Each structure stands twice: as C-alpha cells, then as structure tokens.
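Residues determine shape. We examine one folded chain.
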Amino acid sequence: MPLILISGYPSSGKTYRSNQLVDFFNSKINAATEPHISRLNLAHINDQTLGLNRDVYKEARSEKDARASEYSAVKRVLGRDSVVIADGLNYIKGFRYQLYCESKAVLTPSCVVHIGTPVEKCREINKELLDNPEQDGGYASDIFENLVYRYEEPNGMTRWDSPLFTVPYDDALPPCEEIWNALIGTEGTLKKVKPNLATVMKPAAESDYLYELDKITQEVMNAVIAWQNNHVGEFGGQVTFGDQAIELPASSVTLPQLQRIRRQFISLNRQHNLAKPRIQGTFIEYLNTNFG
C-alpha cells in the first residue's frame, strides 16, 4: 500500500509533521467501513525506530549504512495492507528514486511530502535543541551545515518526486486530505498503479540477461570515462548514444562514483528483466537522475 516519503532539512519538523499524518491516517482507517481500507496497517519508520543516532551523518560510511537500514525497513513492510511513512532526511534524489522503484515494484502508489521550513528557521530550531539538554534532538553544527549543503530539494516535475506536497512552516497541518485522496482515493477505492518495464518483477526470460546487464552498463560507464579523458578540464558536457545523451555535471565524475551508481542500478534491475534494447536507455536515464 502507499508509501509516503518525508523529505526536508535537518530540524525542519519532519517527525512532527509525520506524527500529524500518522494521526490523520489512523483516524481515517479506524472510521472506514470498507474492508480493504479498515484492514490497512500504518508503519512509521524514522531514525528513532531504527535506533540510529544523528552522529551517523558525520561519516560517509555510517551514513550509507543508515540509508541502507531505512531502505531495508521500508522494503520489508511495503505491501498491499500497509501504509508506510518513511520519515527521514531523504535528501538524496537517487535514494528517493530507489524507494519510488520499490513502491512501483509492488504496485503501490507513492508521494513525497516536502517539509518547507526555511533553512534559517531550521538553524534556529537546531540550536535551541542543542542548547536544551532535556530535548531529544539537534544535529552537531558541522553535521547540520553539511546536510543543508548537500540537500537535493524534491522536484514535482520528476516522476519519483510526484505527486509532491509541500508543507510551509506556518501551516498548522499538512494537506492530509489531499495526500489521502492522492494515495487512497476520494471514494475509498484504492489507487491502481500500472507497472512499467523498469520495475515489474519477473524471472529473466533470457539466460544471458545478467551478462548483458553487466556488459551494457560497463560500456556506458567506459564511454563516460573516455569522454572525460579526451576533454580534460571540460565539465558539463554530453556523452551521446544515438538519440539519448548523458548530461555530465559541472564537476568531474570519478571512477568510484560511476562504479557506485552502476552497482546500484544493477542491484535494482537484477530481477526486473529489462528488454535488452532498453538496458542502455534506462541506465542513461538513471545516470542523469544521479548527475542532475
């Protein structure tokens, strides 16, 4: 059932807004007379439920492990009888894309709720939390500033961040009714999600599928490396493949970065059985998502 992905700056009030959504969805589920609504369970996943300390965001390795914990927890509870609220920073668009793919794979709708608290207000709240020993919250100043700097704001024009609901700081409540209608439906009829070839899970029809997946993605990665080697000092160019192109970022892409993105893509599509002609195009799209 639906995945609600919360995203926002550190100390923006994500858990506060998530708890408001939990209360609203629970009240709607408890009042429902339709069996397919009343049987829904609600799962609220955040750093506290996962036992994660805010210091995990200090180092790249521990932060990566923290994202993996959230990803696994969400994947474990996503299903036809669950509403999942993933309440975390979720500030990397590539990570939001991964969770979007997981929801599509189990044919359930998803949305992103952006907590629109201005960064200066977040900084003020964070300082108050740090200064009050009775409060459970607050990020060390260096961690806070680093997370703000790296935050990739959701974009409702992309399918993985859509539908997008923004909650201004001054609003008393999130647009709970609109979120319910977008995910559950106005008449209590559950939203249908049409699978696409990139997310539907089925056994590989071709015995060499994994070989082709590995080979084609390696060829694309090699082309990016070759372009950079031939255009030293030039950034932000294009690597073309027929009518598609990889839009390179304004800074050089390192080999470890490319290898990490390629591993993520292969992991996501290992069992999806993309048609061979679509592997290259889908990987190019995935690269552009991570580079953009």
